[in-house]
Design a protein that fits this description.
Strands 26-25-24-23-29-28-27-30 form an 8-stranded mixed beta sheet, with helices on both faces. Strands 5-6-22-7-16-10-11 form a 7-stranded mixed beta sheet, with helices on both faces. By secondary structure, the chain is an alpha+beta fold. Helix 4 runs antiparallel to helix 5, helix 10 packs antiparallel against helix 13 and helix 15 runs parallel beside helix 24. It is globular, with a radius of gyration of 39 Å.
Length: 1101
């Protein structure tokens, strides 16, 4: 028989066995070598296709290296037994064509390279042959490719399954449901440009012929807070941008919309309206076509778009306060559009947005809302409209997918294939209630994966008495119990706090959590944390140690690192726009909508909204279940659904956080491999049995192949005859292979050592072939070492010593690194911090090295004012008129004659220094009349304002004392432009005490502070001395006292050998005051460290 081969477009060579039978793939090199037992090309053999075959299967490094090698060759799929590991390539690899589908259709799992289609085909064939429901569970982080995998699975079934008797409408609806749900339920996040913001489980029904005849979708917890608020760099749901970008002009005009997303408050908060990877215009066309396929009429599409537009108009609805501080709607145009789009009365909607209806003892009362409450009501209405519309949309799709032949006999024999595409584990800089629910969902699915794979199989082996060494793994049941346990779990405590009478807040919920679960090893708060951990935990946050890592949740909904404005300004408008603050855990869990808003929406003439807001809600006295409880119950139902089916697993991995093709972030992937439990899964698969079907199913499938015992005996006899010759053949081939490998390895090692030695001998010579290998090795080693030891901040002056050949390059790299760190630091400085640094720099210029108590002021921030508005008498504010107060501080004024101290307030305005006594302005010194400021060089807090005297009627200079003298003088000097007119005097200060009379202040060091009038008529100031210790000795003491584990310091010398006694010959406690160590930030130009010492001067060198 002649050998027939054929080259197919993928570059593979196939052997034609029979014109009407499937072909076998072969390899081509040095001619054609036909391999009938495998369909693998050379490219497919990169690494191992199944981690079970990995030689060093216990090594995580070998596991990741195999992933890397295959990823570099665009081989993104690898098996762990029946589990498929998928790495997101972030680009289209052209491996999902119809030709690829045919290649994997009806082929045994291991005959072809790993692929998503192989799993899809295996699941489908098991569903048909065993008549048992199947489920494909797709898991992974956000951005790992779960949604794309679900779409490809649906595409495979739609293309390869036989068409039902009544046409292929169901297949088309299954496919077209995806773009609609993605448009309304997906959005761009920091991790993923098409992130699912809801959970989805889809059941596809197949008849006895294997044709899809129906489907059903379950959705879980839409992230509706995204409608009104997005983090920086994120977008709202896709549908808003698609409508604005792709909608027809007539449609937009009818809806009252314009194309610019920047015109809508709900679309600009993330400041990311345009995304390079998203084409909203073309996506709109796909969605518009899909709505028609899934049985939407033109009227339903119009009603749906009206609701989408109404959400945008709600976001642009503004309020203003009247004389009684009650909110009033100021945007009549938006109200007019809302009235038409929502199908409600304008006056009713206006009242519902600005008032709250309260029913007390059977009576209805209307309570007006303030600006913040009105903004909250508006946003709550927008979220409720969108989330209920999404639920209606899912129900509409389900009606379209439902089997139309429920009464036929074939329907009763249908089987179901489930596809789970649910949001991945999320860790953001700011995590709120939504991330808590999403990560709880991932914990439940991880627990299910553990039970169905790692746990159940090992328990089965032990139950059957099979010798088995248990594989250890982390069982996250402890975390699931922490969240969902009755009465003691986080959800139960949250519900209890939401439902209890009295003043319940997010912080009281946190306090109750701390009291109930404070001893749980996976729970932490600011109160429960140690000193070091508290720095990373705000008082309104708690931290959970999930199976995928630590996540810190903010219960108040406010970003602790940012200020959330309550009042903003509309673009192009002069009226303020009030923004409601982000909701906390309690608000989001309650998810309450004011009663009159519900009544208004129940009266809507929009057919969709009339179904979303049922009037039965108004008469139902029962309090609805909280969001967390609803989500928990739906998750438990989902777990039961998945347990009832035969599972298949696809574990998706994200190769990098920047969504770049070809980039393989080993640290990120190692983290995912660890928390997904892939290594444990591999060890169980490697040690376990390859074939683990139940006996009944095995017997049913295999007993037909051995009809007569003599067939089995004949087979065994034939094997026994050939056993020895086969063993010798295999042994000789394998020994030859090992010998060749060993010889090649030795040859390579000898050549490498020879080249290295030659290069070392000629290392100082110019580059040549003999030393190139060594020089390149030295350069590479230095650069790799430099990468690991780069300075971490601008103050770190360390730098590895370069080899002679890289000295010039090393200096250039060092300069670039320094400039880069300076640039990063400068960019990170906020305007407020920049002003603080500028003031500190001026203080350093004036006082550094000149005034003794200056170092004490360095670590203390200058604040904008030391007196609140309520501490300044209204009469003083009235006297100042329109002059703003730039700074205010309490001071003590000493009389010019008797030096009697009197309490005063010092106010700085743009034009003058104002001295105030209670409600009276005692003295106003214009900056033009301020000739200078005098202060001593010691650690006192007195200063003198020198005033220009034009005649004898004017008052003299002013003697003042301030507890914040450095801050006060710095701000005064900047306001009056007198930075160069501050005089720091040694010993005494002379000032003008009155007409023709001068006063003198004498400053003397002493043991304690004393200010009094001396016998000679001078003002005598005795100041406590500050003594200084050598900086190097201080640093030595700090390092010796510091605890290596906690970073803290010993409480008493008895805790350790007192290094201060070693350095100075005296006890450390006798030297140190109440504040032992005061490190000063070098940002302000003061790198010294000082201690306050309460001893005699002779004790300190």
């Amino acid at each position: 028989m002649a050998l027939q081969v054929e080259l197919i477009p993928t570059g593979e060579i196939i052997r034609v066995v029979h014109p009407h039978r499937p072909c076998k793939l072969a390899l081509g090199s040095d001619g054609v070598r036909v391999t009938m037992e495998s369909a693998l090309t050379a490219r497919d053999r990169v690494g191992v296709q199944d981690f079970v075959l990995l030689e060093n299967f216990t090594s995580e490094a070998a596991f990741i290296e195999n992933l890397r090698r295959r990823f570099r060759e665009n081989l993104i799929y690898t098996y762990i037994g029946p589990v498929l590991v998928s790495v997101n390539p972030y680009r289209d690899l052209q491996i999902y064509s119809r030709q690829h589908m045919e290649r994997y259709r009806g082929v045994s799992f291991y005959e072809v390279p790993p692929h998503l289609f192989a799993v899809a085909d295996t699941v489908y064939r098991a569903l048909r042959t065993e008549r048992r429901d199947q489920a494909v569970m797709i898991s992974g982080e956000s951005g790992a490719g779960k949604t794309e995998a679900t779409k490809r699975l649906l595409q495979f079934y739609a293309e390869t399954c036989p068409a039902p008797e009544r046409g292929g409408a169901v297949r088309d609806r299954l496919l077209q449901s995806n773009p609609v749900l993605e448009a309304f339920g997906n959005a761009k996040t920091l991790r993923n440009d098409n992130s699912s913001r809801f959970g989805k489980y889809m059941d596809v029904q197949f008849d006895f012929k294997g044709a899809p005849v129906g489907g059903h979708i379950l959705s879980y917890l839409l992230e509706k807070s995204r409608v009104v608020h997005q983090n920086h760099g994120e977008r709202n749901f896709h549908i808003f941008y698609q409508l604005l970008e792709g909608g027809e002009e007539e449609t937009l005009r009818r809806l009252g919309l314009e194309r610019n997303p920047q015109s809508y408050l709900y679309l600009v908060k993330g400041q990311c309206a345009k995304v390079s990877s998203i084409n909203d215009k073309s996506d709109w066309k796909v969605v518009r076509k899909a709505l028609t396929v899934i049985d939407f009429t033109e009227d339903e599409v119009e009603d749906l778009l009206s609701i989408v537009a109404s959400v945008l108009h709600l976001g642009n609805t503004h309020f203003a306060a009247d004389e009684e501080s009650n909110a009033q709607v100021t945007t009549e145009n938006q109200l007019k559009y809302l009235t038409r789009l929502l199908g409600v009365e304008g006056s009713t909607l206006r009242e519902a947005l600005t008032h709250r209806k309260i029913i007390a003892k059977g009576e209805e009362l209307l309570s007006p809302l303030n600006l913040e409450q009105a903004a909250y009501a508006r946003d709550a209405l927008a979220k409720a409209i969108y989330s209920r519309t999404f639920s209606w949309l899912v129900a509409k799709i389900n009606r379209s997918l439902a089997s139309k032949d429920a009464e036929s006999p074939s329907w009763r024999s249908t089987t179901v294939l489930g596809l789970l595409d649910i949001y991945g584990f999320e860790v953001f800089q700011h995590n709120s209630f939504e991330q808590f629910c999403i990560n709880y969902c991932n914990e439940k699915l991880q627990q299910l994966f553990i039970e169905l794979t790692l746990k159940s199989e090992q328990e089965e082996y032990e139950a059957e008495g099979i010798a088995w060494e248990p594989v250890q793994y982390f069982n996250n049941k402890i975390i699931c119990d922490l969240v969902e346990e009755k009465f003691k779990g986080i959800i139960s405590i949250l519900d209890e706090e939401c439902l209890r009478p009295g003043e319940a807040t997010d912080l009281t919920f946190l306090e109750k959590l701390e009291d109930t679960v404070k001893h749980h090893p996976h729970f932490l708060t600011h109160k429960l944390a140690d000193q070091r951990t508290r720095k990373s935990l705000d008082r309104g946050e708690f931290r959970l140690l999930h199976y995928a890592g630590e996540v810190t949740y903010n219960i108040t909904g406010e970003d602790p690192g940012a200020v959330s404005p309550r009042v903003g300004w509309e673009r192009g408008s002069a009226s303020p726009h009030v923004c409601s603050l982000p909701s906390g855990f309690l608000d989001k869990n309650n998810d309450l909508l004011f009663r009159n808003l519900k009544e208004t929406m129940c009266s809507s003439e929009n057919p969709i909204l009339s179904q979303c807001f049922d009037r039965s809600e108004l008469s139902d006295k029962k309090r609805p279940e909280t969001v967390a409880t609803q989500f928990k119950m739906s998750l438990l139902e989902l777990v039961e659904i998945l347990k009832s089916k035969e599972p298949a697993y696809i574990r998706c991995i994200k190769p990098n956080d920047s969504k770049q093709p070809g980039r393989f972030d080993e640290v990120l992937i190692r983290h995912q491999v660890k928390y997904l439990g892939l290594m444990e899964n591999l060890r169980v698969r490697r040690a376990g049995f390859a074939y683990r079907r139940k006996y009944e199913a095995f017997l049913q499938r295999t007993k037909i192949f051995i009809r007569f015992p003599k067939t089995l005996f004949a087979t065994e006899d034939a094997l026994e005859i050939r056993r020895q010759s086969l063993a010798i053949c295999i042994q000789s081939w394998w020994r030859g292979t090992l010998g060749r490998r060993k010889a090649a390895k030795r040859k390579w090692a000898a050549q490498t050592i020879r080249r290295f030695i030659q290069g070392f001998i000629l290392r100082h010579a110019p580059r040549c072939p003999e030393n190139a290998f060594f020089v390149d090795h030295v350069r590479t080693s230095f650069l790799l070492n430099l990468r690991r030891q780069l300075p971490r901040n601008i103050l770190d002056t360390s730098w590895p010593t370069p080899p002679p050949a890289l000295r010039e390059a090393s200096e250039l790299l060092r300069e670039l690194c320094r400039k880069n760190m300076v640039w990063k630091y400068c960019r990170s400085i906020s305007p407020e911090w920049k002003q603080q640094l500028q003031q500190k720099a001026v203080a350093s210029e004036i006082f550094k090295g000149k005034k003794d108590n200056y170092p004490q002021s360095v670590p203390r921030l200058f604040i904008s004012t030391r007196l609140g508005a309520d501490e300044i008498n209204p009469r003083v504010l009235q006297a100042l008129g329109s002059e703003p107060i730039q700074y205010a501080v309490p001071v003590v004024k000493y009389d010019r004659k008797g030096y009697k101290p009197r309490s005063r307030q010092l106010l700085l305005t743009p034009n003058a220094v104002v001295i105030v006594e209670d409600a009276k302005v005692k003295q106003r010194i214009e900056y033009t009349n301020l000739t200078g400021i005098s202060v001593s060089s010691l650690s006192d807090s007195l200063f003198v304002l020198h005033v220009q005297r034009q005649d004898n009627k004017q008052k003299g200079d002013v003697v003042l004392q301030s507890d914040h003298v450095i801050e006060t003088l710095t701000k005064t000097a900047l306001s009056a432009d007198r930075v160069n007119n501050i005089n720091i005097n040694q010993g005494s200060i002379t000032f003008a005490g009155g007409p023709g009379r001068d006063g003198i202040i004498d400053f003397t060091p002493g043991s304690e502070l004393l200010i009094t009038k001396a016998k000679n008529g001078h003002l005598a100031v005795i100041i406590e001395r500050l003594h200084w210790i050598d900086r190097e000795k201080l640093c030595s003491f700090i390092l010796a006292c510091q605890d290596e584990e906690t970073g803290g310091f010993a409480d008493r010398p008895g805790d350790m050998v007192d290094p201060f006694h070693t350095l100075f010959g005296i006890s450390g406690l006798s030297l140190l005051g109440e504040e032992q160590i005061k490190p000063v930030s070098p940002v302000f130009g003061m790198p010294e460290v000082f201690w306050r010492v309460n001893v005699q001067p002779e004790l300190v060198n």
